[in-house]
């Protein structure tokens, strides 16, 4: 299943400049998702992080992975924010950053469902650029 930006906007409540998923290239309901975020020098956070050596902020990389996981959760449940459903990031375990993401990178976002209990979803997430691991973690999201 592929999702373009219009479909992504239907399934995530985020908007510019905080929508951090550009496209979904593969999605298996109840299983996994593969999405990406293209990083452009025109992104507002690069002006201050850092002016002479721009780096995609780590907290935004975590948010991008969480948004990909949120898309997987929303699609798996068959829900949208317009239905009154919302996903909150409630925990991050084992987070490791391996390489910085910079302007020009296409950050590949992967999420896999580990479990779901009483509205708390656990995902294994990772981000890669050109096959090189940038970050990985286990995240928890709450469906409210």
Mean pLDDT: 96
CATH homologous superfamily identity = Hotdog Thioesterase
Uncertain regions spanning at least 5 consecutive residues: none
Question: Can you count the beta strands?
Answer: 6
User: Could you please say which CATH topology applies here?
Assistant: Thiol Ester Dehydrase, Chain A
Tell me the helix content.
10-25%
Mind telling me the C-alpha Rg?
14 Å
Summarize the structure.
This protein has two helices and six strands; from the N terminus they run αββαββββ. By secondary structure, it is of the alpha+beta class.
Structural notes for this entry:
By secondary structure, the protein is α+β, with helices and mostly antiparallel strands. It has helices at 5-11, 58-77, and strands spanning 23-28, 32-38, 87-97, 106-117, 120-129, 132-143. The protein has one domain (5-143): Roll (Thiol Ester Dehydrase, Chain A). The chain has a six-stranded antiparallel β-sheet, with helices on one face. It is globular. It starts with a helix and ends with a strand.
């Amino acid at each position: 299943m592929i999702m373009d930006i219009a479909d992504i906007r239907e399934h995530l409540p985020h908007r510019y400049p905080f929508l951090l998923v550009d496209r979904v290239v593969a999605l298996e309901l109840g299983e996994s998702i593969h999405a990406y975020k293209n990083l452009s020098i025109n992104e507002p956070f690069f002006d201050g992080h850092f002016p002479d050596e721009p780096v995609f902020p780590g907290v935004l990389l975590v948010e991008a992975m969480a948004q990909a996981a949120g898309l997987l959760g929303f699609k798996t449940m068959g829900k949208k924010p317009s239905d009154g459903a919302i996903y909150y990031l409630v925990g991050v375990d084992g987070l490791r950053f391996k390489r910085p993401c910079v302007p020009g990178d296409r950050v590949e976002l992967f999420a896999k469902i580990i479990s779901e209990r009483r509205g708390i979803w656990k995902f294994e997430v990772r981000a890669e650029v050109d096959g090189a691991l940038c970050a990985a973690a286990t995240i928890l999201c709450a469906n409210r």
